[in-house]
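Lab notebook page, bench 4
Experiment: in silico fold of construct C2
Operator: M.H.
Input chain length: 478 residues
Purpose: comparison with the prior construct
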Amino acid sequence: MANSIYSRRRFLGATALAGSAFAVPNILLRGQDGAGKRLNLVQIGANGKGLSDTQGVTLNHNIIAMVDVDQKRLEEAAKKNEKYNLDASKPAPAAPKLYKDFRKMFDEMHKDIDGVIIATPDHTHFLAAMWAIKHGKHVCVQKPLCNTIWEVRELHKAAKEAKVITQMGNQGRTMEGQRLAKEWIEQGRIGTLKEIKLWTNRPIWPQGPMEKVLKPQPENLDWDLWLSSTPSEPYFEFPEDKQTKRSNGPHPFAWRGWWSWGSGALGDMGCHIMDATFSILNQVIPTKIEVESDTISDLCAPNWTSLKYHMPASDKQQAMTVSWQDGMKNGVANKPEKPDMIKQDTWDKASSGMMFIGTEGIVYEGDAYCKSPRIFPEDKYTEARAALGNGTHKKTEARSPMPDNPQGEWAHCIVNGGTPSSNFDYSAALTEFVLLGNLAVRSQQAISWDKEAMKVTNVESANQFVKRPSYRPGWIPA
């Protein structure tokens, strides 16, 4: 993402190739002329992933403010954004206003903002997005949408009521590969789909039972703002044997393993790796999830997890199971057994991946996004590629006007109309699908889910994890 330059020429060329799903006029643009409109956008969570998200839109739109609780990272992000424009032979953009607290930013700037991109730790996705939606702003939120199912549903409901354009930042949803995988399966390239297997090498940050070692907070970090609505506590770092090159404490990277602020390996990568599965299975929600995992604590996700999602039948697919594996188990990657038809070197390269197993073959992808899926055995892949070449492959899925750029696609839809690939109607249910696995992990037993009641029906104690226990005053917008 960081190496791609979304020039004006490429933007317009991609727009011309967009499918009909992206061609509906936008009635939400406030008195603007459409195609030439430069949006005024805000980035909340400015550096790291936030910076790459900004790069998806900065050449065609105005970044008028950046928000980050770390002053050093905030200033670095502003400088890097300017350099990115200059490296693309664009004029230096107007300097964005810099804020530590997004609430203050909204108080001062809400009248000037068209849309907000959010790339903060998981626990503040809901808060920042709700502030944006309450001000009537379009929102693009990094995955997972939130880290509790209650927050996901409340955010989705609020966005629909506000009639804003929404997107989640799971880039695979914009890619050609995911669409091909679904079309191949629906058009019988691997016979009848009967099982799906997914895996990842995450976590690549400290998880499992950990102690908190109290330390003075860094001068550049406003730790209280970082905690936001979660209970106040002293700044801490990890024991020395848990520290990494990227992080000695939860900020800015290793918050992912903590239930209060992250969602573990499943929440971090599930909205990528489970995305194609969710689309192929026509967005059904599992009814039961079985679990096995390493040692779990009340504070942190385990070092490895194995889950089995039981998916009900839909009008296009039979009932089946979807397995998920993450982490290292007994010093070995926790992943499925290699099918005989897949070569060992191909298999070994896949630190994350997915297999859609049919009666006559497998759709296989050895990455997290389903960017370049293949079919095994090889002769079936040869046939599929020939069909693409001669035009006999049926493209039943609408293509994105901005492949591999969910932020750009979202901005495109605000200006030109249409529905982003991972709008909240889609991504809220995908995130719920993912987070149900964490309900099973935290319960340490199989759970049965009633989606209508938003309730685990067989393990009452699991329902305490459906919603965050509390929020500090001043963080939920009125």
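Observations: The CA atoms of residues 224 and 232 lie 7 Å apart. The chain has 14 helices and 18 strands.
Next step: discuss at group meeting.
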